[in-house]
């Protein structure tokens, strides 16, 4: 299965999520935006949109963002699975007409998440209420019309959602490794240093406490999403097979 990965910045790659997908047999084709203005041409069975430090509507500074929104809608029309992470989830919201805006409180580091009643996704079965996942975001979004909320917490309500049967948006970062998390310290701002002066030490402690369980969850997520990619490819109309994106 060929999967297109939209990577907005070098510091946020597909990480351990990509490793688990490759173990299952996925071929990942990464569009690293700083290196090329348009995605690579080809036939793709699924789409992953990763995170980044920009706002989902900063089109003047990041002109690729409308193109990514178009890609999301195209994959949706074709019934192909889409997975958006952090900025990727916000771009899904944008693609279907929902606003993206500043959250009242930023989330930096591992924060607890809680399944919503009725969230019966395979990758959420046995999810321990309050299990922390890695966060690094200042923005949030309204759910697209018809979307179902799956995970939440008190700081940022919309942590994970499903739209239709083939689109998932996650505000948190299941893809991270300890190396990726610690590299994000290069994105510290004066505001972060003033309000989170112990962030570096906190992240190191949190990784020791939470990353193994986070990675185990990511493996379950990757397997369930890849199963959906395979099932979607088997039922795709002949007219979509080989269609370039």
Structure description:
The chain has 245 residues and is α/β, with parallel strands linked by helices. 33% of the residues lie in helices and 24% in strands. The protein is built from 6 helices and 9 strands. It has helices at 15-24, 65-77, 87-95, 178-183, 190-195, 199-235, and strands spanning 2-7, 27-32, 46-49, 82-85, 100-115, 131-141, 148-152, 160-163, 167-170. It has a 9-stranded mixed beta sheet, sandwiched between helices. The longest helix has 37 residues, at 199-235. The two termini are 15 Å apart. Mean pLDDT is 93; it is low at 241-245.
> How many DSSP E strands?
9
Work out the strand percent: 15-25%
Query: Could you name the ranges where pLDDT drops below 50 across 5 or more consecutive residues?
Result: 241-245
Helix content: 25-40%
Radius of gyration using CA atoms only = 17 Å
- What is the count of helical runs? 6
> Tell me about the biggest sheet?
9 strands, mixed
Integer tally of domains: 1
CATH architecture: 3-Layer(aba) Sandwich
Within the CATH hierarchy, at the fold level, what is the topology?
Answer: Rossmann fold
What are the SSEs and their pairings?
Layout: E1 2-7, H1 15-24, E2 27-32, E3 46-49, H2 65-77, E4 82-85, H3 87-95, E5 100-115, E6 131-141, E7 148-152, E8 160-163, E9 167-170, H4 178-183, H5 190-195, H6 199-235
Parallel strand pairs: 1-2, 1-3, 3-4, 4-9
Antiparallel strand pairs: 5-6, 5-7, 7-8, 8-9
Helix pairs in contact: 1-6, 2-3
């Amino acid at each position: 299965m060929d999967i297109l990965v939209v990577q907005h910045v070098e510091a946020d790659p597909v990480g351990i999520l990509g490793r688990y997908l490759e173990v299952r047999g996925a071929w990942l084709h990464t569009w690293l935006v700083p290196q090329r203005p348009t995605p690579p041409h080809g036939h793709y069975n699924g789409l992953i949109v990763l995170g980044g430090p920009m706002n989902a509507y900063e089109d003047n500074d990041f002109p690729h963002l409308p193109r990514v929104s178009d890609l999301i809608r195209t994959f949706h029309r074709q019934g192909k699975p889409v997975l958006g992470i952090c900025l990727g989830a916000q771009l899904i919201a944008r693609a279907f007409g929902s606003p993206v805006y500043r959250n009242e409180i930023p989330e930096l580091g591992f924060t607890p998440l809680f399944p919503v009643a009725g969230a019966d996704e395979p990758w959420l079965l046995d999810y321990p209420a309050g299990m922390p996942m890695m966060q690094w975001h200042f923005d949030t979004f309204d759910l697209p019309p018809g979307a179902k909320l799956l995970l939440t917490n008190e700081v940022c309500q919309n942590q994970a959602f499903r739209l239709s049967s083939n689109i998932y948006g996650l505000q948190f970062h299941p893809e991270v490794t300890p190396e990726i998390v610690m590299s994000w310290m290069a994105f510290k701002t004066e505001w972060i240093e003033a309000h989170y002066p112990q962030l570096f030490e906190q992240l190191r402690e949190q990784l020791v406490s939470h990353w193994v369980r986070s990675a185990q969850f990511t493996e379950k997520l990757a397997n369930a999403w890849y199963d959906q990619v395979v099932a979607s490819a088997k039922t795709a109309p002949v007219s979509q097979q080989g269609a370039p994106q």
